[in-house]
Specification:
Layout: H1 3-8, H2 18-41, H3 44-52, H4 55-76, H5 84-108, H6 118-142, H7 155-177, H8 181-189, H9 192-212, H10 228-253, H11 262-286
Helix pairs in contact: 2-5, 2-6, 3-6, 4-5, 4-6, 5-6, 7-10, 7-11, 8-11, 9-10, 9-11, 10-11
Length: 287
């Protein structure tokens, strides 16, 4: 009797073999790595970062990516996990996918060749592997897998998970534009009034993105009847603060704060905080 006949007879179909589940998860991982990191893989500034980026800051970014991937795996990994040991395994797999996909793509584009010094090749792959590894984990939720699930059932745990996912979204989208020259140019063209208006616009869009507009998947961890100002303070204001801190760290990592005045750094944070805030709001809907 075939699987379809068994289902028609009221019997439960046989589960998919474990090997197939692993292959499907890996396929989604590679797909997510390419889809989410392709804009950065084809950005000239990201290529140059792998060449001249401060090695301490690059190493710190790679190290910080390890716990980020581990926690993200708990919410949107390749499979349902209930032990941190499984999340560590998923983190290692995601990082490996990020490295391999970056190596293949950069080689296909002719960005890295055997004629280059080993340090340049490693640097270019390393800086690209961060967004690619995040994309590998997000590929599960975006390419047919399960959505992120808050750990535990308490409101406090749910709130913490929401803020973490917002930080991931802010970092991911911020990485797309932080290395570009256009981001610096915008910050120089803006006045203080432009910056204030952009802050207000960023927060209004965040709030509308998640609460006012009924996107599918919007599920704020707030009980029914919660006042709008409570949601605004707990999620929008907190989310924008997280996006701003992520923006500042990203700018420092890529050397955008070196030999720059404090006012110009603040302007750059406001500029980068705009896409980072959108990424933070969108993360709550898609991860």
């Amino acid at each position: 009797m075939t699987q379809r006949q068994a289902a028609g007879a009221g019997q439960t179909p046989a589960p998919a073999p474990p090997q197939r589940k692993i292959l499907v998860g890996l396929g989604r991982g590679f797909g997510g790595a390419l889809i989410f990191s392709l804009p950065m893989l084809m950005t000239m500034e990201m290529w140059w970062l792998g060449f001249y980026m401060d090695r301490f800051r690059l190493a710190l970014l790679l190290i910080l990516n390890l716990p980020l991937l581990t926690i993200l795996s708990h919410y949107a990994g390749f499979e349902e996990t209930f032990r941190w040991r499984d999340d560590l395994r998923d983190m290692a797999v995601a990082y490996a996918i990020g490295i391999v996909s970056s190596l293949v793509a950069l080689s296909a584009f002719g960005i890295i060749t055997l004629a280059m010094p080993p340090g340049e090749i490693v640097g270019k792959i390393a800086v690209q592997s961060v967004p690619a590894s995040i994309g590998a984990l997000l590929g599960r939720s975006q390419l047919g897998g399960g959505k992120a699930r808050p750990e535990g059932g308490t409101e406090q745990a749910s709130y913490a998970s929401e803020l973490f996912l917002m930080a991931v979204g802010a970092l991911f989208l911020g990485l797309n534009v932080a290395p570009t020259e256009e981001m610096v140019l915008i910050s120089y063209k803006m006045t203080e009034w432009h910056a204030l208006a952009l802050i207000v616009l960023s927060m209004l869009l965040m709030h509308a993105f998640v609460y006012a507009v009924e996107f599918k998947g919007s599920d704020p961890a707030l009980p029914p009847g919660t006042p709008w100002w409570s949601a605004f303070l707990r999620f929008t204001v907190a989310g924008y603060a997280i996006a701003s801190l992520i923006s500042l760290y990203t700018l420092w990592t890529f050397g955008r704060t070196d030999d720059v005045s404090l006012m110009q750094i603040l302007m750059s944070v406001v500029v980068l905080g705009f896409p980072a805030a959108i990424g933070a709001a969108a993360a709550r809907l898609i991860i």
